[in-house]
Amino acid sequence: MHLKCLEIERFKSFGPYTRIPLLEGFTVVSGPNGSGKSNIIDALLFALGLSTSRGMRAEKLSDLIHQGAAKGEVAVTVTFALDSATGGGDLTVCRRLKVNGPNSTSSYQLNGSPCTLTDLHEELARHHIYPEGYNVVLQGDVTGIIAMPARERREIIDELAGVAEFDRKIEAARRE
Ligand code: ATP
Ligand code: MG
């Protein structure tokens, strides 16, 4: 599968509507410092349901709203082109965040139909996409992995290889 398109509304440095089409294969985004390259990755993580604003380099969720936006609402839609092995066609994921004073609410859609965050994460996991995982390697992650104790590094490798899930199942069975 590959990332086919990102549609960004009022997220961080992006105004009312920006559409970023992506081709299959290797893509490079270049631009001056502070021009919004990393914000594209933050927007992707946002749509995948990342809950911590820190993971999107913001103090709080309301900081994700474009400064000067006419309304306190952001939305990001991500379209994946699926491989024929996983059914082909497109998978579209959308998250909308509404901020009203100190309150914020997120709503999610899968292929245009409203769903819960759990539904979203389950669907993404079927395609091996994990917003908290290592599909996205952020600035500093590589040095972090090199510098961490061997045991922690092994845990990451186990997670990536899919072994950790079986370890958790073994542990759960032992407790029963
Ligand atoms: P670098 O090359 O330094 O990594 P970059 O292209 O990755 O830069 P980003 O970190 O994506 O840049 O963008 C930072 C910019 O986003 C800053 O100029 C900041 O003012 C702007 N920005 C962040 N949040 C908002 C917001 N809520 N409203 C408007 N602009 C924002
Ligand atoms: Mg950057």
UniProtKB/TrEMBL annotation:
Transmembrane segments: none annotated. It is found in: Cytoplasm. ATP binds at P32, N33, G34, S35, G36, K37, S38, N39. Belongs to the SMC family. Contains large globular domains required for ATP hydrolysis at each terminus and a third globular domain forming a flexible hinge near the middle of the molecule. These domains are separated by coiled-coil structures. Homodimer. Required for chromosome condensation and partitioning. This is Chromosome partition protein Smc. The gene is smc.
